[in-house]
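seq/struct pair 1
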Amino acid sequence: MTTFGKQALAGLRVLLVLTLITGVLYPAAVWAVSRLPGLQANAEATNTTLVAVTREGDGWFFPRPSAATLPASGGSNKGELNEDYNAVVAERRAEVAQREGVAEDLVPQDAVTASASGLDPHISDAYARLQVPRVARANGLSEDAVRALIIECTDGRGLGILGEPGVNVTALNRALESAR
């Protein structure tokens, strides 16, 4: 057998072994671990604040809207020139304004536009503060106490310079639950 033939045979063996490991064994192991009892106890993300968890009712802070259909994640490819998109944003703006008892022009942009994944747990400080009166009233807490929770759950800029500070809604609602 020639040197080329030996190298080709060795390459084929490596290809088959790696295909077996990465294409069969690893996915099977991940699937098996995901089926362990206790990992599917409920649909809510537990022990993490990396995913937005929406809770129903006036006593909770609301995350950004999602363009995803749960349990999948995904954004929308509709933009500002799309009439359907503009209608959805206008409907959301009216809904948030009515729920929070403010004029539509006071509703922050992140309250009406979805994040790219639909699972982002962060909202702007403006959107969090807009929700304070409703959440405080529903929980029998002072607005100052609720504002203090917002400060506690605000994450700074990425690497100290990237983006704007954001309020983690999942962490905020858990802190709110403890404060009740």
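seq/struct pair 2
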Amino acid sequence: MSGAVRRVRESDVDAVVALEHELAAYQRAADRCELTAEQLHRALFGADPALFGHVVEVGGEVVGSALWFLSFSTWRGEHGIYLEHLIVRAGHRGGGLGRALLAALAAECVARGYPRLEWAVMDWNEPSIGFYRSLGGEPLGGQTVYRLAGGALAALGGGQGGGVTRPTSG
């Protein structure tokens, strides 16, 4: 399957939001995906964008995307790319489009002198795990991803972090 990979454009935002919602459904979490076109547009094209993206088109239609941001290794002292999400529509999988998106990110790393490209994959997602392994991707051993969100985040960030006083501005 032939597709054209390029940087995401403002006109792609709606298509990328739709892909993200498809990915959430595939990952059995459709009810947790709250992304809107306005939010994604701001993240990608706002005053200080911290999110970047590539899309793949087939016949003028966006059928896949890769959203990423810069990471930093304090041990290596170098940036890398962290792939937040990679998705190719179900009807277009298996034809090399996901590989083309990852190749574009690998090329970004090479061009910028970044020594690594990293991502996470759901432990039950055997098709994706097999795909990533086929490209030479390796799981990082000995690490578990943690998340602080909702009430726990508010409690910790609201000054209830164990008796230490936060500095105030002013």
